[in-house]
Specification:
By secondary structure, the protein is mainly alpha-helical. It has 16 helices and no strands. About 20% of the residues are buried.
Length: about 400
């Protein structure tokens, strides 16, 4: 009672109770202070805003390409749809590619016209050469897609024998064929495991297993893989022993790959010969012929009393000179252009021939074209320069 009176008296007197003040916290201290905006937060917001603007601009551009692609026949869009699906780019629409390439073709047409007119200085030849730029533009696109298609086919053929061997073991262990495929789809098999997972999702979604398997075979431009899928479906229809069928198919694919490597090794001498002829022999002989033609012009000019050959032009071998009545039938600039074009064409044909001899597929040579053409041009320019310096020193004496 005394304690209550004491506390009540303290409250009545207006003096704060120390113990009560320690227990109750003022509301102002309970409110959290807002954290200051740092420079990092501002930079991240600006970056996010810039990214959103860029994505919006890209989406508008893609819609524009879609609208342009819809102006063309639907067969062109379906053709690129099938190619893009085989290349693993199912999200890209064919009509968008057609619209994009149509815009690129216009720029290629104009650029080729002005480039040809600058080189040849003839309007008729420039007009005739302009469509070549458009053809080159479309050809490069189709070549890149074809290379991607072939790369996917080779990747799935590489792991197909081991995958079928594991499927055969699963079937012999008592699993159904669909479950044996799904359990064999391990990450180390790369692309084929991802595709089998897609087949499993379609099957669980209600699509028949054989139909999903046929669609899988159609997404790859590989005869080996398509035949394997066809054999599996025929085995399911006929009720055959799938374990032995998968095992024999695996061994046949592996033996065929070994035989192909042996054939490639037996024709290696032909490949070396073509490589030497296209990459070194032909450019070297063209450079030698060019410098002999320069020397011939120089001698004819000296004998006929005409204008002397400029030393800088003689080393470059680009400018024709005034000749006497016994001048050769071709000018230096024409022969120089002919040599360049011949080296480029020889490099393209040689790369396709080597790919055909090595793997039986000429499309594999598309990736060798830049290396072949670049090597041939480098050999030609270097040899032409060195021999020009040597002949210039001889003719001075």
């Amino acid at each position: 009672m005394a304690n209550e009176t004491k506390s009540g008296g303290a409250a009545a007197s207006g003096k704060p109770n120390p113990s009560r003040a320690m227990m109750i916290t003022p509301p102002t201290q309970l409110q959290k202070k807002p954290s200051p905006i740092t420079a990092t937060d501002t930079a991240s917001k600006k970056k996010q805003k810039t990214t959103n603007k860029l994505l919006y601009s890209l989406s508008r551009i893609s819609y524009t390409f879609d609208a342009i692609g819809m102006m063309f026949p639907i067969g062109a869009s379906k053709y690129f749809d099938s190619m893009l699906e085989a290349a693993g780019a199912k999200k890209i629409q064919g009509r968008r590619i057609v619209g994009l390439m149509s815009v690129a073709s216009v720029f290629a047409l104009i650029g080729t016209y002005f480039a040809a007119k600058f080189v040849v200085t003839s309007t008729i030849i420039a007009v005739l050469a302009a469509p070549l730029g458009v053809a080159l533009c479309w050809g490069v696109l189709i070549a890149l897609i074809s290379l991607k298609i072939d790369a996917r086919a080779k990747e799935i053929e590489e792991y197909l024998p081991d995958f079928l061997q594991l499927c055969s073991a699963n079937v012999k262990a008592g699993m159904p064929i669909d479950q044996s495929l799904w359990f064999a789809a391990r990450p180390e098999f790369g692309l084929i495991s991802k595709e089998i997972d897609g087949v499993a999702r379609k099957t669980f979604g209600g699509e028949p297993f054989q139909k999903a398997l046929l669609e899988l075979g159609g997404r790859f431009r590989s005869k080996t893989f398509q035949r394997s899928v066809r054999l599996i479906n025929e085995g399911i229809d006929s009720g055959g022993e799938m374990g032995n069928l998968l095992e024999r198919t695996s061994w046949d694919i592996r033996n065929m790959a070994i035989m192909q490597k042996e054939v490639s090794g037996s024709v290696m001498m032909y490949i070396i010969f073509i490589l030497f002829a296209a990459g070194f022999g032909a450019p070297f002989l063209f450079a030698l012929s060019n410098q002999l033609l320069v020397t011939n012009y120089y001698v004819m000019g000296q004998v006929g009393g005409n204008t002397k050959v400029d030393e800088s032009l003689m080393s470059q071998a680009k400018v024709p000179m005034v000749m006497s009545s016994g001048e050769p039938g071709i000018s230096l600039s024409d022969f120089y252009k002919f040599a360049i074009m011949s080296i480029i064409i020889t490099g393209i044909i040689s790369s396709l021939m080597i790919a055909t001899i090595k793997s039986g597929n000429s499309k594999d040579g598309l990736k060798y074209i830049p290396a072949f053409v670049g090597a041939g041009l480098c050999v030609f320019l270097f040899t032409n320069y060195v021999m020009g310096l040597l002949l210039k020193g001889i003719l001075k004496t």
